[in-house]
Structure formats: C-alpha cells, structure tokens
Amino acid sequence: MPSIELTHVTKRWGGFYGVDDLSLQIEDNAFVTLLGPSGCGKTTTLRMIAGLETPTEGRITIGDQVVFDSSKGIDVPANKRRVGFLFQNYALWPNMTVYQNIAFGLQNDRSYTKERIKARVDAVAEIVKIGPFMDRYPSELSGGQQQRVAIARTLAPEPRVLFMDEPLSNLDAKLRLEMRSELQRLHLETGSTFVYVTHDQMEAMTLATRICLMDNSVLQQYDAPLDIYNRPANLFVADFVGSPSINFIDASGSQRADGRFELTMLGGQKAVFTPREPVQLATWLDGQHRADEQAGAELEARLKVKGAVAKENTESSFRYRVATTEDLTAAHDDAAPVVAEHDFVIGVRPEFLNIREGAPMAGEVYSSMPTGMETTVRLRVGHYLLTGVIFGPAIYQLGQHVNFALDGEGLMLFSRENGRLVCQGSLTIA
Ligand SMILES: Nc1ncnc2c1ncn2[C@@H]1O[C@H](COP(=O)(O)OP(=O)(O)OP(=O)(O)O)[C@@H](O)[C@H]1O
Ligand SMILES: [Mg+2]
Hints:
Blueprint: E1 4-13, E2 16-26, E3 31-35, H1 42-50, E4 57-62, E5 65-69, E6 74-75, E7 83-87, H2 98-107, H3 114-127, H4 143-155, E8 161-165, H5 173-190, E9 193-198, H6 201-207, E10 210-215, E11 218-223, H7 225-230, H8 235-240, E12 247-255, E13 261-265, E14 269-275, H9 281-304, E15 343-348, E16 353-355, E17 361-370, E18 374-381, E19 384-391, E20 401-406, E21 411-415, E22 421-429
Parallel strand pairs: 3-9, 3-10, 7-8, 8-9
Antiparallel strand pairs: 1-2, 1-4, 4-5, 5-6, 10-11, 12-13, 12-15, 13-14, 14-22, 15-21, 16-20, 17-18, 17-20, 18-19, 21-22
Bound molecules: adenosine-5'-triphosphate (ATP) and magnesium ion (MG).
Magnesium ion (MG) is lined by residues 42-43, 197.
C-alpha cells in the first residue's frame, strides 16, 4: 500500500489559513492520526489528500502518483485516487439490507462481476464480523453493528488508503473502546494506509503509529505517540497530550559552567535542573533565533509572490497555564511580564510526582480522587497546585501535610521566550 507525501501544502480562504505550509510524509502501511483542537485544520488536511478540497498551493503524492501539484496544474479527482472514506455521519441506506449497503459501491464499477461482488462483500463482512446480519436492515442493527457495516462498505472497493474523520464519535464510551481495537486489527489485516482524524488524544495515542499534532493550521509535531508524550517539542504539545494534564511550573535562573541550571520556582524554592544530555543554553538560543529569522525571511519571500495573501490568523489561542489556588482560569496573557532568556517553564508529568516520607518538598493535600486503579492527588505548595497520579489505592485526608519529590530524568525544561523544549533532565531541591 502506498505512502503519501505532502509538500508545502497550504489551504486558505482569503487571508484565513486553514492549513499553513504543511509538509508530511505518511509511510506505507502507517496508521497516522491527525490530532489537534477544534478548527486546527485536521479535516481540511484529510479532504485535500482525498481530493475533496483543492489546496491553494503545494504538492501531494499517493504512492508514485502525483495527485495534486499547484505549480503544474495537476488535480486528480477524488474518484480516481482509489481512496476510501469513513465520516462521522456514515449514514447507511435505510431501505437496503446490509448486503446491499456493502455491495452498493461495487455495482457501478464494471470491473466487478456479480460473482466477484459476492466474494468481495463476503470477504469484508468476515473482516468486520458482520456475516450473520447480511439480510437485516440498518434499523435492525445496534449502533456498533451499523458502524461495522459502514466500515465494510468503505473497505469493499479495496481502497489503497483509508481516510477516517472521527468515525467513532457517535458511539458510547464502551463501544468506542471496542471499535478502537477492531480498527487496529483491521489496519493489520487490510495492510492499507490509514489516516485518521480525531480530537480525542486517547484515541490518537492508542491507535496511531504516528501522530500529526496541529494547532491553528500549523504542524506542531509529527512523531510516534510515546515520543509526543515523553518528548514534546513545545508547551502546546506537552499540554495537549496527557490526562491528567502536565504540570507547568514557572522558573527563572541561569546555566552554570557545569551545564546545570540553577533555578528558583514555586515562590522561592531553589532547585537545580540537571540536563540528561548536554545542552548549551546560549548556543541553543542562538540556533533558535537563527531558525526564526530564516523562517521570517522565507515568509517574506512567499509574500512577494504574485497573488500571495498575508495570514490573518497568526495567533494561536493556546496559553500555558500554571495552576494556582487563587485563579484556576488565569492564563499568562497580555499582562504577563516581559520574558527573558533566564525564564523557563518546567514540565512535570503527573506520574513524576511521588509522595513519600523524607522527600525534599512539602505540600498539603488539596484534593484526592481515587479511581481504584490509581489516585489523582492535587497538592498545594504555597498558592501553587501540583497534580500527581499515584498508582494503586491511596487514601489521603484533605489538608494533610505530605512530602513529595519530582522524580526521574524525564522532566522538561522549556524556554518561556519561545515555548520550545530546551532539554530534559532531573531536578534536585537545593
Ligand atoms: N470553506 C471554508 N471557508 C472558510 N473557512 C473554512 C472553510 N472550511 C474550513 N474553514 C476553516 O478552516 C479551519 C480548519 O477547519 P477544519 O474543518 O479543518 O478543522 P478541524 O481541525 O477538522 O476541526 P474540528 O475538530 O472542529 O472538526 C477552521 O477554522 C474553519 O473554520
Ligand atoms: Mg474536523
């Protein structure tokens, strides 16, 4: 099954950019999820690859076929791209049986004889386990069975690539989970390339071989799910994946000659951040500034081309948030002080926070929510709140004083100036 390549693909309506300069390589037989908040450009991206939306600029190839190229005037229509779709509203024909629904798309294709149609419908019905219901009408099926018929109908014409746009969002939580594992199996059995849109990070994490995470029309990170989780490129990515959310802690300080960072955080707490791999902040910042300048120059060049239109929606609505008891909704926005290169944000996944006697930091239990398998605990440190997840049952009294540590080598140090990840490492309390 083919790989898909997007090269500098842009879609804009006037000055509003739905997808901005997206370059992406989707490997053969991959299961890629397009993930991001509402309006970030997921559906538009999918529709452009499928041929349902014409990009403003760029080039798209499926396998060795160029299906779109703005500079060469190539635009292969959707029905010639041999791709299958499954949308959120996958309406089945109510007056047709399951068999007829699945066979419908094949009947218009002259290469399918009656016998071949029958063989094909039986084969896909087997894959989605809908065999016993072939003579029923959609109204006689459960929601999950209807969904499977819709999948079978999409698979019947043997698409090279399968596009799915939130296909499970109509289902209840239990069925969703079940269908997720079916989709994973389906991916293996069909050997097709899957491109799957969702705004549900759990779905993206569990299904994908790679996640394409977007925000406000711009690609933020394209990586394997666990790399996205463990090594987010910036504050947006760190915040978007993970439940409960990552803790952000403002810190300021400087890098010592030995490479460690001497920081002050949480209203006066002194700490030392030791990078896991060596990093030179000054060099890193230089590189970032150069990259930003180059991007700026490229943008300027793009805007000089005839017919180019400046982007209106340049600002993402994302603001990282430091949780405090005073104002849980306060964000770092307009009133935020000017940040400099010695301003950082430390990212701490909830599982890095461990409560134990003798640990170097002290806090008070603000809330404690056991679910059986794990307990989500919020600790108050001064007016800051930190969330931890403790595995196994743990009972805490609200207001109880506890000691805790931020453990491991995977803590993240972000630059507050540009929100990007500087390095990962461990934290010791001075
Ligand atoms: N025909 C159009 N004209 C103008 N703007 C459009 C058009 N279609 C989409 N947009 C805008 O482009 C942006 C991206 O839309 P898109 O449908 O790709 O979002 P999405 O990531 O799929 O969001 P959701 O999760 O809500 O489905 C949105 O801000 C949307 O309003
Ligand atoms: Mg959408």
